[in-house]
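Something for you to look into today, if you have time. Just paste the record in under my message, thanks.
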Amino acid sequence: MSLKKSFSADGKKCTVTFNVNVNAAAGAEKVYLVGEFNSWNETSSPMKKEPDGSFSIKKQLETNKEYQFRYLLDGKIWINDWKADKYVRSELANDDNSVVDTTVVKAPKAAKKPAPKSSATKKTAKK
C-alpha cells in the first residue's frame, strides 16, 4: 500500500495516488476508496485493478487538509492503508481510519549572508 502525492504549482491542489498492493487486496475482485472526500460513499470511487492484482486510483484534493479514508474490498471487508500519514479512531465503528495529510511543506528560508567587506574602500596613506 502507498500514498503518492504531487502538488499543483499554485499549491492549491494535491493529487494523491492511492494504491492497494496485491497482498493487501487478498484476491479481491473490486476495491473502493471510501472517505471524507466522497462523503463515505461506498461505490463512488472504484479503484482500477492492475494486471498484477493491485488496485489504484488518483484523487485531486484541496491542500492543507487531512482526510480520513479506508478501502472496501468486494463490498464486505474494510482495510486501512498501512502507509497512511496517521490513523484516527472512527466515530462510527470500533476501528481506526487512515488519514492522508495534504499539507504543503514549505522549504525553510535560507539565512541571508552578510555582504562581504570590500578592500577597495580602504584608503592607503601616502608618505
